[in-house]
Amino acid sequence: MKYVIIGNSTAALYAVEGIRSVDKKGKITIVSDEKHPAYGRPLISYYLYGKTDLEHIAYRPADFYEKMGVDLILGERAVKIEPKEKRVLLQSGKKAGYDKLLVATGSRPFVPPMEGLEEVENKFSFMKLDDAFALEKALSPEKDVLIVGAGLIGLKCMEGILGRCRSVTVIDLADRILPSILDEGGAAFVQKQLEKKGVRFLLGDSAAKFGKNVAYTKNGKEVPFDVLVVAVGVRPNTELVKDAGGEVVRGIVTDDGQRTSIPDVFAAGDNCESFDISSGTRRILALLPNAALQGECAGVNMAGGDAHFANAVPMNAIGFFGSHIATAGVYEGECFEDIAPDHYKKLFYKDNELKGYILIDCIERAGIYTSLIRNKTPLSEVDFKLLEKSPALMAFSAAARREKLARRQ
After folding, report:
1. What are the φ/ψ torsions at residue 116 (nearest 5 degrees)?
2. Can you tell me whether residue 362 is helix, strand or coil?
3. Is residue 111 a contact partner of residue 125, using CB atoms and an 8 Å limit?
């Protein structure tokens, strides 16, 4: 069997492991437009921060590809899938034939049209290791940095560079930071922590126009800067599958085995949709755990196994300067609150099920809450009053405890 994987991040590596769990000998080829072996994308901010180095940013040991029997093609972009010929065309003109193909192309930065942006010399994105390298060269203690975007990418960039420049200002049209994962109270809690570190926020505002080193906001402010980072959002890389005739809505459409509508072509990661069991909708869940589970499922099935991934839940684990945030599910229904100066906790439940949670600086054993959401466990079967205050196995029935402990062995 000949396996080709386009992409070299989380979904791709878990797919390799999934393939090898079934097929020890088939030929695996990975094609990536990046020049680096796989690395932990969330760690690029810690690289700038100085909390890790290039050796420890690697996502797998240096001998991973060799041990897994992977032919690695770096710095080469896949430009076309030809399903009838079962081959992938590369930018160099080379062709890679496949029996099974995985498209794990992830996402790319979204840069909205903004007047005058072309005049800004020192402007950067913040998604790849090369972005971090380029930004690192532009930073110095006398530089002021403006970050457009107060979401996950923008704030991780802020954490990485705050100690390497004079000031950081973050602007966002939303009325709060991290609007995709935090409610109003949680966002205010985290914003207060970050402001104590010296970060300046301009929320409910946007950069209407740029000069060479200044942003003019919609609300009439002038924000001078030396370095600009645009971190407004991302767009899934779906074009290869769409151009080959595969079904694409917002992301690539797959079944619960990660198969696309094109025979023998699979997709996994930030470029494809999942069925979110917490909201009951199909949507893109651009999350590392989701990419890992999808990639492993795809790999097993590519090699002839029988795997299914049908219980996706939006989950986030992120932190800033030693503070830790964990979120999952949707924020609807009744709500249990435990809010204090040193932590913020909300549990959302509806129809006898836990639907979501927000945990800030109280994330211990958050996996128990996640399992309740993922397994749709009826709250009537557990001691939810105990779980509200302290997530522990003692809140489950004796039979449920035995089952959970058996899974760990």
Report:
1. 85, 0
2. coil
3. yes
Residue closest to 42 by CA, chosen among 289, 367, 364: 289
Q: Could you tell me the pTM of the whole model?
A: 0.91
Tokens coding 198: 């010296």
- Reading the block at residue 209, the tokens are 């126009």
Alpha carbons 160 and 170: distance in angstroms, whole number: 14
Cβ pair 38, 13 in contact under 8 A: yes
Q: What residue has token string 């878990």?
A: 14
Structural tokens at position 238: 């779906």
How far apart, in whole angstroms, are the C-alpha atoms of residue 128 and residue 136? 13
Give, for all 409 residues of the chain, the pLDDT tens digit: 999 999 999 999 999 999 999 999 999 999 999 999 999 888 999 999 998 888 889 999 989 999 999 999 999 999 999 999 999 999 999 999 999 999 999 999 988 889 999 999 999 999 999 999 999 999 999 999 999 999 999 999 999 999 999 999 999 999 999 999 999 999 999 999 999 999 999 999 999 999 999 999 999 999 999 999 999 989 999 999 999 999 999 999 999 999 999 999 999 999 999 998 888 889 998 888 899 999 999 999 999 999 999 888 899 999 999 999 999 999 999 999 999 999 999 999 999 999 999 999 999 889 889 989 988 989 998 888 888 887 765 555 555 555 554 555 4
Q: Do 355 and 343 touch, CB atoms closer than 8 A?
A: no
Q: How many CB atoms lie within 10 A of CB 123?
A: 19
Question: Residue 303 half-sphere exposure, CB side, CA atoms within 13 Å?
Answer: 22
What's the rounded Cα separation, in Å, for the pair 236 and 270?
Answer: 6
Token pair of 345, please?
């906790």
Q: What is the spatial distance between Cα 324 and Cα 326, in angstroms, rounded to a whole number? A: 7
The structure tokens listed for 3 are 């396996």
β-sheet bridge partners, residue 17: none
Eight-class DSSP state of 219: T
Q: Report the Cα–Cα distance between both ends of the chain, in Å, rounded.
A: 33
Letter for the amino acid at 280? G
